[in-house]
Amino acid sequence: MVSVLAVSDETIESLWTPQVRTMNVDLVLGAGDLPFDYLEYLMDALDAPCVFVPGNHDPDLSGYSVGRVGWMRSGMPSAWPGPCGAVNADGRIVRIAGLRIAGLGGSIRYNEGPNQWTERQQRRRARNLAMTSAWHARRSGVAGVDVLLTHSPPRGVGDLEDPPHRGFECFEQLAGRLQARTLIHGHVHPYGAMPKDRVLGATTVINTVGFTLMEMSPGTDPTIVRRRHGT
To answer: Which residues form the Calcineurin-like phosphoesterase domain (predicted)?
Structure first.
């Protein structure tokens, strides 16, 4: 079993103190819109790797690559604005702590801010991610992912009707093509309430605004140990 701490959107005071060191966590998942130094603190305090996707209030992290001389963007040396040491899974599939994690960040486009996509744009990104998953399956002989990590929810599954918080229609097909056991998202604030876990085909959908602590085993649905929303 892998102990996973999933966080997004709202910082939790008790997690940003030495108190968090009492938690036994193997992996931190960030679903966006959190201070990057918060994610860095969790990684350091828990001595655990972090996989994240950017939210619509995060800076633009596209176009960065790291090589022998450090971070580059557009062929020029550049400082990495993201959380130091964390893995940006946006548009990628990574394997960390024994789990296969696919990532797709951002929200529906509602203004000119970063990390916002039209439905058509996100559908194209989702199609590329599904093709990457198929390539991994051919190489490894193992199909599917354990976690689809997104910032926004799927359309009609935990989203809202106001323009900034509408989910993506393409996520339903993507979850099916990836054979995702779990979709973990943020973006939609429950304002102290406990959002219900939802089901999208064979995928369990979890809103992790605040934090969710869960036990996961590759190939199975997670067991929710403890959850808190708000501060």
So the answer is: 22-191
